[in-house]
Amino acid sequence: MSDYKVFGGIRSRAMRVIWIMEELGLDYELIAAAPRSPEVRALNPTGKVPVLVDDGTAIPDSVAIMTYLADKHGAMTHAPGTLNRARQDAFTQLVVDEIDAILWTAARHSFILPEDQRVPAVKESLRWEFAVNQETVAGRMDADGPFVLGEQITLADILLSHCIGWARNAKFEVTNARLLDHDAMMKARPAFKAAVAKGS
Ligand SMILES: N[C@@H](CCC(=O)N[C@@H](CS)C(=O)NCC(=O)O)C(=O)O
Description:
Layout: E1 4-7, H1 14-24, E2 28-31, H2 38-41, E3 51-54, E4 57-60, H3 62-73, H4 83-112, H5 122-139, H6 155-169, H7 177-187, H8 190-199
Helix pairs in contact: 1-3, 1-6, 1-8, 4-5, 4-6, 6-7
The protein binds glutathione (GSH).
The site of glutathione has 12 residues, from helix 3.
């Protein structure tokens, strides 16, 4: 039996969790359950994916899950209580606020909200905001890298690269060279390819 169960498919934020599990070399079962499906609602009342089940306990939220796994297995993170960890967490929340939130609002107004609650015009405003925010995020990355915080890869690199792929799929233009280089480096990692293969 696998140590962990992950609920959610690779075309959702579950991809971040699958990717870090591959980076950490963990044994897990992937259950490609749809958002709001009865099996997901039984674990997470909001019906949102991903959900991790570890030893009978269900943990929702991709960033919470990545942080838990990285801390537990002592890799893909700086140690808790260090200044580097504070920088890592601050960057992680920056990406959630400035990129994930924009893309998620665009998705909600495209196909998540009931049709009569969608405001299609908001997407042009979101595109403008994304163009500004990608410069802000890139400006907070270590200039020499290669990773977001310098020489050590962390879960913030996975989160950022996942969001950049999501942006491309949603036709939000990524123009910043630092982001493009970082994304190409991350997508070349064997763990990313293994995660894609696992979900296909
Ligand atoms: N902050 C949460 C967001 C989770 C989330 O919204 N997941 C989407 C799929 S990527 C979902 O399940 N949406 C279904 C819904 O909003 O009803 C995370 O990072 O896991």
